UniProtKB/TrEMBL annotation, chains A, B, C, D:
Domain HTH tetR-type: residue ranges: 29-89
Record's protein name: AcrR family transcriptional regulator
GO molecular function, one term: transcription cis-regulatory region binding
DNA-binding region as annotated in the record: 52-71
Length: 222, 222, 222, 222
DNA sequence: GATGAATGAGGATTCATTCAT
DNA sequence: TATGAATGAATCCTCATTCAT
């Protein structure tokens, strides 16, 4: 995120009382974003455990002390980063995918749309993958991590639900989890390639999901 | 791979020179296995980066010094462990799956058999998953890791090949990679559950793979 | 002692130049008191070394920057605090105890009065104890600390002198130091208790001092 | 403590099995003593909080890592040091002072003996004073510190008891605490002086205690 | 070979102090 | 002045690795 240097030129009088404390926070907010971006880079490069706070600070171009002015510890950085990514992801698909009518939208489209959307998001934020995927993430973070995962699964369940009305809940959960797993696996391949090859993997992923889900759906829709 | 080239300060008869080292190597081999087992435990518990050599030595019931008598550094442990696991895995399926005639063995069976075999192996050796899955594995190891992965992929390609004779090589590679990815994703879910639920996930994994592959195969077989 | 010599960039009339600074000093004085109060709290809670300037600023409800507008460094805070406490203490007993005539006032009364007075002061200002008592106080502060201590000792010598006219100076000094030490020891016990128990310790302290000093005094007075 | 270089020259055969692990521990034990000595020096110089583990290691002539091979953290060093000092102190006076018969031993002697013994101990181990006296000692250590203090008080109570048979327990406790406080105050003065002046302070301390306690004792003995 | 001690660079974190606004 | 962000040296502690025995 580029330095926005928002003009602090006195705009009005009424907001002055609010402005003073906010101008301070503005710089802080910028720093926080900057640090989280740096953290995203470092995390996705080295993984959480091997990432050093000094490296993050260096990547952000600040001193270690500055980092600790905004985050109490390394964990908190990962947690905040995860939570922000999740928020952004939620927004990203909420706008389009929420209302899905199986009678109107065919599975193909749902899958293709969802995958495209998620892939786009994950290509923009490779840290998301690092955070979701780390088997070395300790303690408190795992919770956040799990929450993130659970949210994803729930989301998929929600999308799935209208397509498989008769299915028992545990089966739907299993399917949703499987979908998320497949998606992550595909994502890894996609992120590892570029250009046409990447596109090919995207298609491959869609195929896997479609073939996996169609039979389930078909029973109902047809 | 542990240091092997130690010169026995040639000074005795051929038999003696071979005998003593051999006994030593026997003890050494035991130590090495012991250490690798410990490493497997620690790696699969904490991940590679967070695993400390001291912890591995402790787990193995030896002193840190002893560990370094057999491995030059931490990396070497992971590499040797990975290589051994791969060997064992290879043997594990070589004995049965090598000759597959699509005309004789239906895809269902191939998939079910392969999955069962791999799953059994991976449940016996959870470290394999940890090693394949770690995004935090630094430098040199990644190569071994990749080699391991590549071997797996090649293996799957080999299995796949007779079923999709007309397919272009890159497509087969993509499919194989996708299969390995799906398998790893399924494995994670399987390892995370027990009993009936685990079985359900095993079945789910087979379903995914079968549905994914049948269309490809069908074109040919039918 | 806070920076005072700030040049008001001489540019106005004498009155203005005096007036503005004065108002400033007034606010400044309040800030300083505020900060010293906060410092007293923090010092007596955690000791000098463990006290952080940030904590003091927070306790005072100001930013760290503000603190450094009035004190050049942490040491200066302790020094100024000590010096103010000493001043207040001096005033506190000067008003009553200065003129003591052994022929008129019996030792019992002198001791009881002095102890009560000091105790009252120290209960009001627990930081005094923390400052006098800290063995962890570094460098320059020790001097101030010693000055404070020396002042106390001198004061006690002065009180003692008329009661032991014949005694050699070094002996009086020793006795005075011993008294101060005993007082501090008693004070610690007193501050550690409340209510009736506290009163009991106060009495105990008076007993100790009385029994210690009476023989010395008795030789003369009787 | 000087390096003892105990001769490991094979002495016998029977103890060999015990000797091997012990020789290792021997070096370790030596290091521990060395480190504790260094810690004693540093603690009594700078106080607990300001003492850095690096400084302790440096003082002991070892690397920081070595220190942590024997102590899990800074606290543990202080705790172990305190506990060792207490043990040594206990031994120091247990041998002589345990059986005191008021009818046989006059108070003067008891006090003089006890003080001399304690003073000798504390001059040998100035860290004891630092540890008992620190107002900045955090958390867990305070407990050990308090235990140390409590032990002292109890010890004094035990010594006192036979001399004041009729006194109520709380009063005895108060008196014992007062004695310990007076002792610590005197100790500070004693440690701060040398030669004849030091002796004079020792005498002064004895006088204080004697005059404080004689009235209590007198009631009974007479 | 085996042991446990030794090393020291590096990592997370704190804190006195300074600076831009 | 006041603020809060910025700094970087210093702290506690860990860990891969080496060494003496």
């Amino acid at each position: 995120m580029p330095e926005k240097t928002e003009k602090p030129t006195a705009e009005t009088t009424a907001t002055a009382a609010e402005d003073r404390p906010r101008r301070r926070q503005a710089r802080g907010e910028r720093r926080i974003s900057q640090l989280l971006e740096a953290a995203a880079t470092v995390f996705s490069t080295t993984g959480y455990t091997a990432a050093s706070t000094n490296a993050i600070a260096r990547e952000a171009g600040v001193s270690p002390g500055t980092l600790y002015q905004f985050f109490p510890n390394k964990e908190a950085i990962a947690i905040e980063l995860g939570s922000r990514l999740m928020h952004e992801m939620r927004q990203s698909y909420d706008e389009v995918l929420t209302p899905i009518d199986p009678a109107v939208t065919p599975v193909e489209e749902v899958i293709a749309g969802t995958v495209d959307r998620f892939i786009a998001f994950n290509c923009r934020h490779p840290a998301f993958f690092a955070l979701m995927h780390g088997p070395d993430i300790p303690g408190r973070i795992a919770e956040e991590h799990d929450a993130l995962h659970a949210t994803l699964v729930t989301r998929v369940e929600t999308i799935l639900a209208p397509f498989v009305p008769g299915a028992p809940a545990p089966a739907v959960t299993r399917t949703a989890r499987m979908c998320v797993g497949i998606y992550m696996a595909g994502l890894e391949l996609i992120l590892a390639h570029e250009g046409a090859e990447r596109e090919a993997y995207v298609q491959e992923l869609k195929d896997v999901l479609l073939r996996y889900l169609r039979p389930l759906v078909g029973d109902v829709v047809k």
